[in-house]
Design goal:
The protein is an alpha+beta fold. Helices cover 57% and strands 13% of the residues. Among the domains are: 95-253 and 398-422, Up-down Bundle (ABC transporter transmembrane region fold); 438-682, P-loop containing nucleotide triphosphate hydrolases (Rossmann fold, 3-Layer(aba) Sandwich). The longest helix is centred in the first third of the chain and has 49 residues, at 98-146. The chain starts with a strand and ends with a helix. It binds adenosine-5'-triphosphate. Keywords: ATP-binding, Membrane, Nucleotide-binding, Transmembrane, Transmembrane helix.
Length: 683
């Protein structure tokens, strides 16, 4: 059986996997496999110290094996010693157990939530003890009345009243306390999951679908809320009541108690099968719901394109990947099977439940006739027997719901357990000042999601401090990728990038990013007011006049002032034109007063007049004596970068030419060719 893997050579299973099958040196390798049908494969390996970089690469790209059927098996995480241990902190190798899930939830509840659980648990015990005494006191009251024992009847009735009131108050307290604990759990769960997602590498977001992640944050976290809010305490309550009922039955007549116990045992066995089935069904429902969400999210976010091309109906049955309708069909199929299983389970329960009454009638009647049991004892037996069966049913039902929630929690905990990006783990060096000298030394890069396709190859160039450098090349030649590496959104596969002579990966990246201004091809604005959008990510204190100054420089102040709420206008990404968004993004970059300014097609959506002025501002920023900075400009319109100090020409991820506009035109290479095409097109 062949096991395909995105970056490892194809491995053949079950023939032995050897060290030299890995694309980096391996010091030790242990492999344990389970029968392929169970799809369990564990690999442990470690590399020598000097291959640490490689190891980190492996971890960041989450190297793993894609088993037949598409399931993904991560090879694991890097520990501090540079060892890669299979599945140490990330996705657990085995499906998680209810105990594991409960332990994790207990850790997440903490503080006040735990107090609520303790109080709720105390109330639960008192309520359960009160409730379980009711049948006994009730029967005694009835028979004392029948026997004309007025004093005993009055005493029993008072006791019954006390039991009912106590049980009512404690049940209310129990439900309230567990609901509070539940609310705290969901809040902490969402918070922890959200923060784990936010701190992942950018490559994580290339891999994971947004619909999938929002599904985990929404529906899955909500499902988990049932565990503490409902399942656990109801299981405890009914288990206590069931035990109490059983003890009472034993004291009444052990043969009768035994018969009830046999029925409970059969019920539990049936549940065991049903519970396992439900757990699997819950996982499938979770997977299919996430799939459907993902398709819907994509379609709804591209609604304009859908409307223009009139493909609303087609979108329901789109054949690329799995269409929405097909996800719904899959969901319906699992739900129908689950409903049938639920019906069968209910049928078995009801049949067995009713049969206790027949047993009571047969055994009890015979015992009364033979004088072994009194009518009062038989009445108690019937009541406690019903109680025991009911408690068994409730315990199994809540246990099944608990297992479903555990199924849903698997992916949530896998995401929570992902290690944050290396960039947030190490502190790094902060320089006194960023001069803006940039060097790319023999940089080669491939995206983690496409490891076989090199996007940049042996890129070498340097940008002097305060230089204005343009990067040009045809679409897909790797210009934006170069910037992505400079912003350290990805790490080079090979080679080094230096800022002011320091390796980029040794610098405190969050500090460095504060010194960099970036305007991308498609700037997106947050759903907040314009003022907050302009000062977004600016660490220094800025006043309204600074914001207005930046907006004026970006030629957007007039537009903002014309809005009824001016700078307080809450913007929506969809409500502004591309040019307006770009100008606000430029104002944001200007306000940071960056040492390095990166403009990736930053003026592509501007009208000619705005472009002319904004280019003037950018040029001035680059040449301003007081605030000199390095400027890197990516532009398709070559006329816009003619004035750059230097132009770097990329072709298929390689630097093919370098020089100023005149030198490159004289060279008559790719740049001159592109320039000619554009001038001809304008003529
Ligand atoms: N996140 C990604 N994952 C995988 N491949 C990517 C990713 N981003 C870009 N690529 C690929 O890398 C190559 C270079 O893309 P890049 O965006 O750097 O080109 P570009 O020169 O900036 O193009 P354009 O001028 O059209 O913006 C392309 O083949 C692209 O498909």
């Amino acid at each position: 059986m062949a096991i395909s893997c995105s970056n490892l050579p194809s491995l053949t299973f079950p023939s032995p996997i050897t060290k030299n099958q890995f694309p980096f040196p391996i010091k030790s390798l242990t492999l344990s496999t389970k029968p392929p049908k169970r799809r369990r494969l564990e690999i442990r390996f470690s590399t020598s110290k000097n291959n640490e970089f490689r190891v980190r690469e492996v971890v960041q790209t989450r190297v793993g094996l894609v088993l037949p059927g598409g399931s993904w098996w991560s090879l694991g995480e890097d520990d501090d010693d540079g060892n890669v241990e299979s599945r140490t902190k990330s996705a657990p190798a085995k499906p998680i157990t209810a105990v594991f899930a409960l332990r994790r939830m207990w850790e997440l509840i903490s503080g006040d939530g735990r107090w609520a659980i303790f109080v709720g648990f105390g109330a639960l015990v008192i309520a359960a003890l009160s409730e379980i005494s009711i049948p006994s006191v009730l029967t005694a009251s009835i028979f004392s009345a029948q026997n004309g024992e007025t004093v005993v009847f009055c005493r029993n009735s008072q006791f019954l009243l006390i039991l009912c009131v106590t049980s009512g108050i404690c049940s209310g307290l129990r439900s309230g306390c567990f609901a509070i604990a539940n609310m705290i759990l969901v809040m902490h769960l969402r918070e922890t999951l959200y923060s784990s997602i936010l701190f992942q590498d950018i490559s994580f977001f290339d891999r994971e679908a947004v619909g999938d992640l929002t599904s985990r944050l929404g529906a899955d976290c909500q499902k988990l809320s049932h565990v503490i809010g409902n399942d656990v305490h109801l299981i405890l309550r009914n288990a206590l009541q069931g035990t109490g009922a059983l003890i009472n039955l034993m004291t009444l007549s052990w043969p009768l108690a035994l018969s009830a116990l046999v029925i409970c045992f059969i019920l539990s066995m049936i549940f065991l099968f049903y519970g396992q089935y439900q757990k699997r069904a819950a996982k499938l429902i979770q997977e299919y719901t996430a799939g459907a969400n993902e398709v819907a999210q994509e379609t709804l976010s591209l609604m304009r394109t859908v409307r223009i091309y009139g493909t609303e109906r087609k979108e329901l049955g789109r054949q690329q990947f799995l269409p929405y309708k097909q996800w719904l069909d899959k969901l319906a199929f699992v739900n129908i099977r689950e409903s049938v299983a639920y019906g069968l389970w209910n049928m078995s329960f009801n049949t067995l439940y009713r049969s206790t009454q027949v047993i009571a009638l047969l055994l009890g009647g015979m015992s009364i006739l033979s004088g072994h049991v009194s009518p009062e004892q038989l009445t108690k037996y019937v009541l406690y027997c019903e109680w025991l069966i009911y408690a068994t049913w409730r315990v199994t039902d809540n246990l099944s719901s608990l297992l479903q929630s555990v199924g849903a929690s698997e992916k949530v905990f896998q995401l929570i357990d992902l290690l944050p990006s290396d960039q947030f783990l190490s502190k790094g060096v902060k320089l006194q000042k960023v001069m803006g000298h940039i060097q790319f030394v023999n940089v080669t890069f491939h995206y983690p999601s496409r490891l076989t396709v090199p996007v940049l190859e042996h890129v070498n160039f340097s940008v002097k401090a305060n230089e204005v450098v343009a990067i040009v090349g045809i679409s897909g030649s790797g210009k934006s990728t170069l910037v992505n590496l400079l912003l350290r959104l990805y790490e080079p596969s090979n080679g080094q990038i230096y800022i002011d002579g320091f390796p980029l990966r040794e610098l405190d990246i969050r500090w460095l990013r504060e010194k960099v201004g970036f305007v991308g091809q498609e700037p997106h604005l947050f759903h907040m007011d314009i003022k907050s959008n302009i000062r977004y990510g600016c660490s220094r204190h800025v006043e309204q006049k600074d914001i207005e100054w930046a907006a004026k420089q970006a030629y957007v102040h007039e537009f903002i002032s014309s809005l009824p709420d001016g700078y307080e206008t809450v913007v929506d990404d969809n409500l502004l034109s591309g040019g307006q968004k770009q100008r606000i993004a430029i104002a944001r970059a200007i306000l940071r007063d960056p040492a390095i300014l990166i403009l990736d097609e930053a003026t592509s959506a501007l009208d000619s007049e705005s472009e002319h002025y904004v280019k003037g501002v950018i040029h001035a920023m680059g040449n301003d004596i007081k605030a000199k900075r390095t400027v890197i400009v990516i532009a398709h319109r070559l006329s816009t970068i003619k004035a750059a100090d230097r132009i770097i020409v990329l072709d298929s991820g390689r630097v093919v030419e370098m020089g100023d506009n005149t030198e490159l035109l004289l060279k008559d290479g790719l740049y001159a060719h592109l320039f000619k095409i554009q001038t001809d097109a304008l003529a």
